[in-house]
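If you are new to this repository, start here. Below is one unmodified record pulled from the training split, so you can see the exact layout before writing a loader.
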Amino acid sequence: MLNMLVLSDIIWQDQTFYPLEMGILIGTRTWGMAVSGLLIGRLADKFSRKFLLLIMVFLIAAGRFLNAFAPMGEPISYGYFLFCFSLTGLGLGGIEPIILSYTNDALSKEKRSRFFGIQESSRQVGATFGTILSAILFQFGYWKLYFWIAGSILFIIMIILWIYLKEPKRGQNSQKDLSNLLNSTDIVYEYQLNAKTVKSTIFSPTNIIAFIEGIFTWLIFAIALYMIYPYLQSEPYNISPIANGILMIIFGMPGAIFGGIVFGKISDTFGKRNIKWRVILIIFSIITLFISIVLVFVIPLQPLTPEEGNNIILLFSYPSGWMFGLIIFTIRAVLGIYNVNQNPIIQAINLPEAQGTVSSWGQFLETIANGLGPVIAGYILSVNEGNYFEAAWITLLLGIPGAFLWILALKFINSDVARIQRILKLRTKELHERNNGIKEIDLKEIVEPNEKKKKI
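And here is the target side for that same chain:
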């Protein structure tokens, strides 16, 4: 996102920014993520998560590495970049479903927000340093070197994962009795999704709400990211990519760490008492995110020449520079709060054999929104002659329903969690009796809380 203006010039070489075409380029990567996630999410619920993760990292590395060999001269260069971005998107699409399925088995419930907090903080730190490195290399014409470095690092990560990553036993951290049984015996959890479990669990109220909400939340985030950097780099502000990158290091990185790690621990503490607290924290993060993004285009920034826009010290001499930095800190922090709570909720309201599938369905809808965001923003900027303030208000209004949907989820979340725990308790009994030669238990024995039958 930070280098869109430079990348546009690399492709067309005429010092003109093509917002619609660049929106399609970014959208292509996210749409590749959506398609890949659907396939890999289902496979993650059946096969080795380690093996699938290695394939995904390889695709990302290959997409980045091949970018460095892009032939110059539009339209060949643009088509080549579309291919490389698509390859990267296919790899990225499988990562989150695999991680959600893997951590559901590898981590206890009391540690998951902290893990996702560390993961999100690491991702933001890497993205921040990657941003400043890419900004420097792109600005001085060494953009091919950036893609070589990024691809090489990913290939090294793939080797490390192959050596050290271990495959956990499926279902071993989903429910207390089931965990004790699986960890103390050689019994294997081999349940697969069927029509009954899909209907009773995946199409639960909270899952449906989360699916729909993701569309609105990620739409506004994608639109904001697509517009913020060109807005700052264009006339009359002229803040250079390097200065933007430094702002991200100073404000964005601490915000990501604060939101991910600090609120990760807080979320685990409150989530252990009642999972509704996780929903409340998500509602808070969405509302704060919306307000922060609006403020980016409301705060009057100091007009700068291109030379002044490259002077980070000069930027901090203006109050608006500090205010903008505080907004960056807030945006990164509340995104951390959102991420460390959403994943544990999805894990709690779904069966072990559905983790990758549900994650991929949610990711599919979110990435479609993520891909549409730049296209919508690019189109509006094209027709309104680059009026960022007007475009921001038009598009950001699309994200309002997200918070209201999570408020609705407060009504259903506890009953959806209880349903999963009843199914897993029944399966624990079934696995134990099957292992001792006793007939299987019919899943019809599962009952809802408001029924008068004996509860399991």
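Two things worth knowing about this chain: The radius of gyration is 23 Å. Residues 438-456 have pLDDT under 50 and may be disordered.
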